[in-house]
Amino acid sequence: MTHTAFNQRLQQRRKARRLTQQQVADQLFVSRKTVSSWETGRNLPDLFMIQRLAAIYQTSVDDLLGTAARSVTRPVTMLGPALAIMAVGRLALPAWPAMLLLSDVFLLGLAILLVGWWRQRLPVLVLRGGALILSILLVSAAWNNLFAMDFGLQLVYLLTAVVLIIPVATAGGTWYRRQRNQQVRG
């Protein structure tokens, strides 16, 4: 919180309520100079006063401090379940060393996408594109029966691909609906 932004918010909230500094001071039992010093940045009110100011201005303390919760929406992914399915399949089913190495590469790709999603470092397009690419690679590996893959491992690959592709497919439907609604409005 910068003092300048806080002071400006105090002044804006007071003016929005059409109150003078003297009226606010009277309600808080402080001098007008004290309210002025808060709004100019010479001093800051204590927490009790901030609570009372929020009540007078009919706003929340978070809003007054500028720390109001920002809605951070993460895209819906099934990376966690896909990683779990892949890990269990990798550990539980017998496979050739080359197949284990391929499974490890897929697990690494899933882990990178999951960590990027969790830390909110990857854009939505990269997440969905990565999930789509991994899904295609998993299906093609199972379909081509690479390295004489065990049938159980083929099922694990296909199930992982389906779990990964569900949010990508539903996101496409959401995009299509948004586009159609904009055309109807326009």
From TrEMBL:
<dbReference type="Pfam" id="PF01381">
    <property type="entry name" value="HTH_3"/>
</dbReference>
<feature type="transmembrane region" description="Helical">
    <location>
        <begin position="99"/>
        <end position="118"/>
    </location>
</feature>
<keyword id="KW-0238">DNA-binding</keyword>
<keyword id="KW-1133">Transmembrane helix</keyword>
<feature type="transmembrane region" description="Helical">
    <location>
        <begin position="125"/>
        <end position="143"/>
    </location>
</feature>
<keyword id="KW-0472">Membrane</keyword>
<dbReference type="InterPro" id="IPR001387">
    <property type="entry name" value="Cro/C1-type_HTH"/>
</dbReference>
<feature type="domain" description="HTH cro/C1-type">
    <location>
        <begin position="10"/>
        <end position="64"/>
    </location>
</feature>
<protein>
    <submittedName>
        <fullName>Helix-turn-helix transcriptional regulator</fullName>
    </submittedName>
</protein>
<keyword id="KW-0812">Transmembrane</keyword>
<feature type="transmembrane region" description="Helical">
    <location>
        <begin position="155"/>
        <end position="176"/>
    </location>
</feature>
<dbReference type="InterPro" id="IPR010982">
    <property type="entry name" value="Lambda_DNA-bd_dom_sf"/>
</dbReference>
